[in-house]
Amino acid sequence: MKAVLIFSGGLDSSTLLYHLLSKGYEVSAVTFIYGQKHSKEIEFAKKLVEKAKEIGKLDHRIVDISSIHDLISFGAITGNEKVPEGFYTEESQKVTIVPNRNMILLSIAAGYAVKIGAKEVYYAAHRSDYSIYPDCRKEFVKALDTAIYLGNLWNPVELKAPFIDKTKAEIVELGLRLKVPYEFTWSCYRGEERPCLSCGTCIERTEAFLLNGVRDPLLSEKEWNRAVETYKILGKNPRPKLG
Q1: What CATH number has the domain spanning 2-234?
Q2: pLDDT tens per residue, range 51-63
Q3: Is 50 exceeded by the pLDDT of residue 202?
């Protein structure tokens, strides 16, 4: 079984990588450079892949499509906006949307899948992303799956998002069972030497490990204590329910 995986080097795609390898898939992981403000996730992606090769057959491609940056330079990830603090479900987090990112990356991945004879393309969209990111919703997955199929009728490819109904905490729960080396994953949007612990993805990551009763292995004990305290402070206001 062959599969192409959109692989960022973050917590979710790393868990999905280990999940696919545990199922016996031969995985072609693709990491994209599309004009992000930093390369920390890519550095960690390389480290994670080297560990994952110990448990299964895995190819890793880093693809530079940064020439599109001027076309999608918008918001906090590819544009000039500041990275906001707080939970992903807050309105302020919409500034972290990269215009049409998943459509672009998945379209390229589908073409690659046809080339290598893979029948499935995977990405790690999950339920916790639902309220802010339209390209992480079931409706998007279903529509793009149909489009990919119709665009490749003679070599059909399916789009898969197996975590679409899972929360971040449930993904970490699975990853802990699969022994994902989370110390080799990076989530922080700011790309500094160490995680900032207060941006949306850092807060969500802290919550996921906290709900599983374990310390994030990427963090020192001192950093973890600070992350939990930050989570509690920013979490005083009730979080909106997911749609």
Answers
A1: 3.40.50.620
A2: 999 999 999 999 9
A3: yes
